[in-house]
Amino acid sequence: MKKHSLSLIFILITQFIISQSFAQEKQVFPFGVIEEIESKELSEKRTLNIYLPQGYHPDSAIVYPVIYVLDGSQYEDFPHIAGLTQFMNMYEILPKSIVVGISNLGKSRYRDFTYPSDDKQDLKAIPNNGGSEKFIAYLENEVMPLIEKNYKTDSHKTIIGQSLGGLLATEILFKKPYLFDDYIIVSPSLWWDNQKMVKDSIFFLKNLSKSVAENKAENTKYKKRIFVSLGEEHPTMHKVADKLVDSIKKLEETKNGTITLFYEPILDQNHATILHLAVYKAFEKFYKKEEEKKK
Known about the structure:
By secondary structure, the chain is of the alpha/beta class. Helices cover 48% and strands 18% of the residues. The protein is built from 10 helices and 8 strands. The protein has helices at 2-24, 78-90, 108-112, 120-125, 132-150, 164-175, 192-199, 201-218, 235-252, 274-294; strands spanning 33-39, 44-51, 64-69, 98-102, 153-162, 182-186, 224-229, 259-263. The chain has an 8-stranded mixed β-sheet with strand order 1-2-4-3-5-6-7-8, with helices on both faces. The radius of gyration is 21 Å and the shape is globular. The mean pLDDT is 88.
């Protein structure tokens, strides 16, 4: 048995050396750039993956909207959303955009995307929960300033989050809505903490309402666009998504077009497969509506 294990290890090492040698002989295909942050908010080094649209040049006067992707490492959602953005740019469905993937590999994802829970099942499943406040501070005080300082950005910002990332995107919408213009929330894990966030949504949405009122007074073009989607999932996921949507709808009706909600369940997809299609539909809805208004 030991002999077979050593043989397998030798084969794997040999294959790795061959693949590395082969790769070094080829021209690298550039897809993005990497930034690293020694985060004071999180007390650790973190990584950003950044896609720059075709034609981007640091000396150009052209500026671009920014799409922030949670779960944004090279092994998570970053390459998928960056590729989708490039495709939609090519066919002018979506304005050329910078995509920032915020890496969250390993256990830090569960810590960063959850606020503290009092639910016993949550504590058992994710004992290191409750770090979302620090992560949002990292996003607001370190990630976004770095991007805005070093890249050609305009003021328009989008956030994309799925599952626990959708929970975090919803928390930002409720607690710090001014951070983003567009929110794409896919299969959000709003069951967290015995559904506390959606149960308290009326209270939290006061922040959104206040933010809209304050910014509209300064900027007549100010608006929030919110896209919520989920696939064929556990009934609780649909229940909490419906609660979220109902709360936002009530606010939407009072804000005269400054808040636009899109709710589109995609029931032929599941939790694992929905992200691509949901994000495509979100951008299609956002920018098709804009084009219709121009006509």
